[in-house]
Amino acid sequence: PDLLKCQFKMLLSFTEEHKKHLAFFTKIEPDIFDEFVRISIEFIKNGTNPKFYPSAADKLGVDPETVKKSVEAMMYLLLECAKTMISELDFQDSLLTVGFPQKIVKHLLQVYLEERKSIRNVLTELKMDLPHYHNMEWRLDVQVASRAIKQQSEPSIVLKLTTEEDESKSAHLLQTDPVNLVHMTSVLEEALKESRSQHCRRIMRNIK
Fold first, then answer.
1. Cβ of 98: how many Cβ atoms within 10 Å?
2. Cα distance between residue 22 and residue 15, in whole Å
3. What pLDDT, on a 0 to 100 scale, did the predictor assign at position 9?
4. Do residues 113 and 91 make contact, with C-beta atoms less than 8 angstroms apart?
5. pLDDT of 77-97, one tens digit each?
6. Where is 137: in which H helix or E strand?
7. Cα dihedral angle (172, 176, 178, 179), rounded to 10 degrees?
8. Which of 18, 30, 38, 148 has the most crowded CB, counting CB atoms within 10 A?
9. Is 111 within 8 Å of 80 (Cβ atoms)?
10. Are the C-beta atoms of 163 and 170 separated by less than 8 Å?
């Protein structure tokens, strides 16, 4: 029997806010747009220069925050494309969903193809290699009596946390009581919830 061949597209997903900031580039002259793209690449490689925003905004007659958000949106776009190594076709289709004219799309494609390797090198250098979770064992201990107090109940939890870094494992012994354990669990759940927010995901994408 014939086999069906499917080609999956990997299009970038843009929020309405991101599209709004990118739309700024459709309102400026082509030579100014080229300069903004060059500045975005430079900021990715060498870090941002806050003095640029008010200076550029003054020349264009717009608010500095508008310039800042637009440059950050362009940086995010280029970083995300380089990180995922998106194909030429998917790159163009993704930008067309933003509303960019074909001329801008072609120019950004050329920049992407020329700079994606160097951008990926920047991402590699920024990658943080920190100890991470490997395993956890726990034991519940309850002291039911002592010489001073014949009847008592003092539960404690002993934890053995194993972390891994560079293929090397380390064990950490921890002890806590149920009240503090519940509190720590609550704090960690809040942190996990925050890590799933759009703001946190955007930050993590830029440093991975």
1. 19
2. 11
3. 55
4. no
5. 998 888 888 889 888 988 888
6. strand 132-143
7. -120
8. 18
9. no
10. yes
